[in-house]
Amino acid sequence: MNATTGTMLAELLRDDGLLDDWVEAQAVAGSGRGLDATQLRADATGFLAVLREAVAADGAAPDAAAWTPVRAYLSELSRRRVHQGFTPSETATFVFSLKQPLFARVDGPASSGGSDAIWGVSELVDRLGLWTFEEYQRGRDEIVRRQQEEMIELSTPVVKLWEGVLAVPLIGTLDSERTQVVMETLLQQIVDTSSSIAIIDITGVPTVDTLVAQHLLKTVAAARLMGADCIISGIRPQIAQTIVHLGLTLSEVTTKASIADAIAEALDRLGLRVVRQGS
Amino acid sequence: MEAGGERIPILKMGDLLLVTIQVDMHDQLAVRLQDDLTTRIVQDRAHGVLIDISSLELVDSFIGRMLGNIAAMARVLDASTVVVGMQPAVAITLVELGLQLPGVQTALDVEQGMELLRGTTKRDPERDVDRAAL
Q: What sign results for the dihedral spanned by CA atoms A185, A189, A192, A196?
């Protein structure tokens, strides 16, 4: 990128008709799907404004400090479009569609820099487009990460069933990270509520492999060290078969087929009894 | 450190011994506790040992093993041990270290620990009565 590219770009951008042509090009490329015309136009106007400033300040060097507002603008725009449900191509086309109206003007009075300058402009637009794409990706990654965290928190509630009895209904696949969260929340709740019995219900756990079983046993062992007993409930027939086929021993843990049995066992250990009214 | 230095107090309550660990355990201290406790179990003819570790926030494999050892020694001397008030972080660490303290009884707090010990040692007064009758 050299000074001629910068000069050429500055001249190209000075053309007032560029905005209209670009908005039209975007409409043709279909990059503004679902957005109303005013919003599209506002996005384009805003981008051209920061772009003009950057070109005026520091030519055509997109890594320079003067280009920071341009990058920030694109980053904000792509993240917004992520949330609006745009596809990656549609988002990147926002920038790429600028090429057509720009090059349409190269033949006009602005064409003074020669092929090198044209190449420079092309390369610059490409880089901005790629930047947009990367930002789009980053926005998507953020959403995925946030959803993952929310899922971890959502899926590990520790509920108090009775005075001294806690229950953890586990839903979904157990990996190391989730088990760690389950273990920590359960143990903390045991301390906070001073409960001596914890029921771990695995009805919602699709598969139990050696790793999951090991995680469960660790949780049980840690709870025992703190002075609380664990009951594992909700073991489905297939899971019982898997456990035996894998050669796992859950002998030192109380296991129950359903959570109802586990509650009955817990109440029994506390010396409580449920009786029908009037009998 | 000299023998007269820091040590963990051991309180006698009936035929139970109560140990509250309120400082960070270092290896010397742990060894001395082991010594003192076994001596006191014999001296006081104690039948139960209650170790409160609710203020203990750091634990290593040595301390973990020491807890197991104390319980095993106490059992040889016919006293049962209950470890009470273990913090979640300590429990997780011990499990990760593979120290699950198999022979040690546990309870959530001193109160429940006492109940547990009374339950296991409550035959003793009768035994004493029987012995007195002989």
A: negative
